[in-house]
Write a structure and sequence with these properties.
single chain, 303 residues, alpha+beta, Metallo-beta-lactamase, Chain A, 7-stranded mixed β-sheet, 7 helices, 16 strands, globular
Length: 303
């Protein structure tokens, strides 16, 4: 499958990155720096979300809800206390320590940005035993190497979906060629349903990219779903899964994946971690009466 030039231009590779997760206050000085990481306990696993950066975007209706009119977008936004002229993006790789392995899911936009928050969470790049890439957008592969091209996680094995790798390998995408191609001999390729390691299973979530996958974690009968970019906003994607998203390469397939997996999360009541959800990125999915869903932020359930 060959990606078009337009699809690669609309990929996350084009997103600028805010290296320091801070917000500006109205009087001009910076707000307190946001936390860089958050730990959760899932059975025998330690799960840590990393705030590798944040970014403000203008005119979010140009990204979300492309198939609804301005009035509908404004009505939904107002009902959820959201402005229509701006939105905040978060970039959140996740570390899973199983006791035997330290597995990093996605690498952020830059090596320096990700390794700095890893260090704050108590990990060094050398401790990472496996790097799992959910998909090949630039904000997920950017930390594989530094600006000089040196490998960031030299001790790690690399894992990604076969469908995803094959699609991008023929796309003539600069990010893939710079970050992934040089490491291709170190990659192992999996299919949906395969285990990354014991208790970590790949889940098909195609549509955002050709082979985009999430990962189900299970330890001591507890489950958690790493949904990556299945849904990129807690209202405009989770609550309205059929709304088209600019960065979804196959919009119909992405919407079908969202609806299928949101329904599963709501029925089975397991928590989810979304790469672009408000930090710390974890929440639950509940159903709404009109056939949509509702995102419930995590508070203290998995301390």
């Amino acid at each position: 499958m060959k990606l078009t030039r337009r699809q690669t231009m609309l990929s996350g590779a084009a997103l600028p990155f805010a290296a320091a997760p801070t917000f500006a206050l109205a009087d001009g000085h910076a707000a307190t720096t946001m936390p860089t990481h958050r730990d959760f306990t899932l059975g025998g696993f330690r799960v840590t979300t990393l705030l590798a950066g944040n970014r403000n975007v203008e005119n979010p209706h140009q990204i979300f809800g492309l198939n609804v009119d301005d009035a509908t977008f404004a009505e939904v936004s107002a009902a959820n206390f959201l402005p229509t002229d701006a939105a905040e993006f978060f970039f959140t790789p996740t570390v899973v320590s199983t006791g035997a392995e330290v597995i990093l899911f996605d690498t952020g936009l830059s090596s320096a940005g990700t390794t700095s928050v890893l260090a704050a969470a108590g990990y060094s790049a050398e401790q990472i035993t496996h790097v799992v890439i959910t998909h090949m957008h630039g904000d997920h592969i950017g930390g594989l190497s530094d600006e000089a091209g040196s490998e960031t996680f030299a001790n790690a094995a690399y894992i990604t979906g076969q469908v995803e790798f094959d699609a991008w390998s023929s796309a003539e995408d600069e990010g893939f060629e710079t970050k992934v191609r040089p490491l291709s001999e170190k990659f192992s390729f999996i299919q949906p349903g395969d285990d990354v390691r014991s208790g970590i299973t790949a889940v098909e979530a195609f549509g955002h990219t050709p082979g985009h996958m999430g990962y189900m974690l299970e330890s001591n009968s507890q489950q958690l779903f790493l949904m990556a970019d299945l849904a990129n906003h807690y209202v405009w994607s989770v609550a309205y899964p059929d709304w088209e998203v600019r960065f979804d390469m196959d919009k119909a397939a992405a919407a079908a994946s969202r609806r299928r997996l949101m329904e599963m999360a709501a029925a089975d009541r397991f928590p989810v971690i979304g790469y672009h959800m408000p930090f710390p990125g974890m929440g639950y999915i509940a159903t709404r009466g009109d056939g949509g869903y509702r995102y419930v932020p995590h508070s203290y359930q998995l301390l």
